[in-house]
From TrEMBL:
GO cellular component labels: extracellular region
Signal peptide residue numbers: 1-26
Location in or out of the cell: Secreted
UniProt-listed Pfam families: NDNF, NDNF_C, NDNF_N
GO annotation terms (biological process): nervous system development
Protein name: Protein NDNF
Domain Fibronectin type-III: 178-315, 436-544
Organism listed in the record: Rhinopomastus cyanomelas (Common scimitarbill)
Its biological purpose: Secretory protein that plays a role in various cellular processes. Acts as a chemorepellent acting on gonadotropin-releasing hormone (GnRH) expressing neurons regulating their migration to the hypothalamus. Also promotes neuron migration, growth and survival as well as neurite outgrowth and is involved in the development of the olfactory system. May also act through the regulation of growth factors activity and downstream signaling. Also regulates extracellular matrix assembly and cell adhesiveness.
Record's keyword terms, sorted: Glycoprotein, Neurogenesis, Repeat, Secreted, Signal
GO molecular function term, any single one: heparin binding
């Protein structure tokens, strides 16, 4: 580490002047005067004992801090812990030790300024006792001397960054940082397609202070982090704010839009959506074995465990590890027959991918997909080459052209952890559509001004093709609304409704699509009650399509 001796000696020279401004009658008096003048002149550069200090570094500009010891602490141990929060840095500890003649003259009251200044600036009096370069958390342990002034110099040669520095002379009682076990490695117990099970040896701090210490696990797809400070800095660099690790269990309101919080079985997880993939933080209390769920198959993940002091927010890092999840097994393939309608149900946890195969008997074919529940993506390949893909919303058609006996491979993937389902048909008979012609929107509209205590007025779009529309109603309670709307099976027909819920059926069409709108007033309702309304449209094949359910509340007073 390149040192600028001028900047090291400048404070020492000024301190010499300060010393001689006082009458130094004894060694203890000398120490008090030394420390008093050091604080008066360089208080912002003095490292506090027993307190963590955050230091901001500018690229290629050294930064220096000083410390001296309390009176009576001669030949006592001290430690300095430096935690880089981003890039590797260089840092060193230098000591200036006053000569015996200088101390003797000081205690006798001899105030020869030139002699004292010369003694302070003698190169032999300054020595580098420790230096380090890297981005690991490093601790220096030394023995203090009452006649020594210590200087720490830090330098970042890559870019602006920040670090934390912790100095303590109390090495026997209490620790700011939780202790790591003798073997701080993380062991991988098992690897699955979407899970990895980890274990690590308990921290002595957890065993002694279980209520104030917890483990937090960081999962990402980029690399391991040597400190929690470095991990938080990396996530912030993506442009999002990251709550402190302890806010994971205390302040969920700090979450950003790109973050998802999951709380279950006394474990709290925060998932950050970043450009390089997900970064997950899981705090699991004092448990030292954990199975990470919901990972992607055939993906390498990096795992870091931090033991965190809940009272001080200080942390210590275990040695990180990595593992690659297993490749997803080849899905079973279901053969499709021309004109046949099948319903595919995908379990987001066990089988999120479903595969279909079809051999064309005509040059032109059409795939039809009707989303029943959840969210589904479809990919269609012809002779091993992708020809169509997209998300399924409501009804979706893919008309494709090829050769006789072309083989089509269809892959359906659920994008939700819960179950998803979809109806699928492939047909070469375009003149015999399976589903009715649909309007631009399947939304049902209600007119608030036309609501009464016993009736509501609904409207929905029709088409240029004459079709049958059937309306159903169901009275529900306030606490049933969310469940009714979320669990609705959009592929189910009127057979899922009770006969008493049927209101009416009517035929309707209009050649002009701008005027293809119909309204209906539903009477005989109870005042101040919620009703769930469904409308079904039937095409020539008799297969219905359900409009989006609508919840309307009648007026309480009229």
């Amino acid at each position: 580490l390149k040192m600028s001796w001028f900047w090291f000696y400048l404070p020492l020279h000024l301190l010499t002047v300060a010393f001689l401004c006082h009458s130094i009658k004894a060694s203890s008096r000398f120490q008090q005067s030394f420390k008093a003048n050091l604080f008066n002149f360089y208080h912002p550069l003095i490292l506090a004992d027993g307190k963590e200090t955050t230091v901001h570094l500018l690229k290629d500009i050294p930064k220096r801090y000083y410390f001296i010891l309390e009176e009576g602490r001669a030949l006592a141990p001290f430690t300095i812990t430096v935690t880089p929060c981003d890039v590797p840095i260089e840092w060193s500890v230098l000591m200036h030790k006053a000569s015996a003649s200088f101390l003797g003259k000081a205690t006798q009251g001899d105030h020869d300024t030139q002699e004292v200044s010369k003694s302070l600036k003698a190169p032999s009096m300054v020595s580098a006792v420790f230096s380090y370069k890297g981005n690991s958390v490093e601790t220096y342990m030394g023995m203090s001397s009452y006649s020594a002034l210590y200087m720490l110099e830090f330098l970042s040669t890559e870019r602006d960054t920040h670090i934390t520095v912790y100095l303590t002379t109390d090495t026997m009682s209490g620790h700011l940082y939780p202790e790591l076990p003798m073997d701080p490695r993380i062991d991988v117990l098992g690897v699955g397609h979407t899970t990895v099970t980890l274990t690590w040896k308990h921290s002595p701090s957890v065993l002694q202070h279980r209520e104030n210490i917890q483990y937090c696990l960081l999962v990402n797809e980029k690399h391991n982090y040597k400190s929690l400070c470095a991990a938080e800095t990396a996530i912030r660099s993506t442009g999002m704010k990251l709550p402190p690790v302890l806010a994971l269990s205390l302040s969920p309101y700090l979450l950003e839009p790109q973050q998802v919080m999951i709380l279950s079985n006394s474990e709290l997880s925060i998932i950050n959506k970043v450009s390089s993939g997900e970064v997950r933080q899981i705090c699991m209390g004092a448990k030292n074995t954990y199975t990470v769920p919901n990972l992607s198959p055939s993906t390498q993940y990096y795992f870091d465990v931090f033991v965190v002091n809940l009272l001080t927010n200080a942390s210590a890092a275990y040695t990180g590890t990595f593992a690659r999840t297993l490749e997803e097994p080849e899905p079973k393939v279901t053969m499709l027959k021309d004109g046949e309608v099948i319903r595919v149900v995908m379990d987001g946890q066990k089988q999120s991918v479903y595969s279909l195969q079809y051999q064309a008997r005509h040059k032109k074919i059409q795939f039809t997909f009707q989303l029943c529940h959840g969210q589904v993506q479809v990919h269609i390949a012809k002779n091993a080459k992708r020809v169509a893909s997209g998300n399924i919303s409501g009804l979706r058609y893919f008309s494709l052209k090829g050769k006789l006996l072309d083989t089509y491979f269809v892959q359906l993937r659920s994008t939700e952890e819960s179950n998803s389902s979809v109806k699928v048909q492939v047909s070469s008979h375009f003149h015999k559509p399976l589903f009715p012609l649909l309007p631009e929107s399947l939304k049902i509209k209600s007119f608030s001004k036309l609501r009464t205590c016993s009736s509501v007025t609904l409207a929905w779009l029709g088409t240029q093709e004459e079709s049958e529309y059937c309306v159903y109603k169901k009275r529900i309670e306030e606490d049933q609304v969310w469940m009714e709307l979320q669990s609705a099976d959009r592929c189910s027909g009127p057979e899922s409704q009770h006969r008493s819920e049927k209101v009416l059926c009517k035929y309707f069409y209009d050649i002009n699509p701008q005027r293809a709108v119909t309204t209906e007033t539903i009477k005989g309702l109870d005042a101040g009650r919620l009703y769930l309304f469904d409308v079904y449209i039937f095409g020539p094949s008799g297969i219905p399509v359900r409009y989006h359910s609508k919840v309307v509340k009648t007026r309480k007073k009229c």
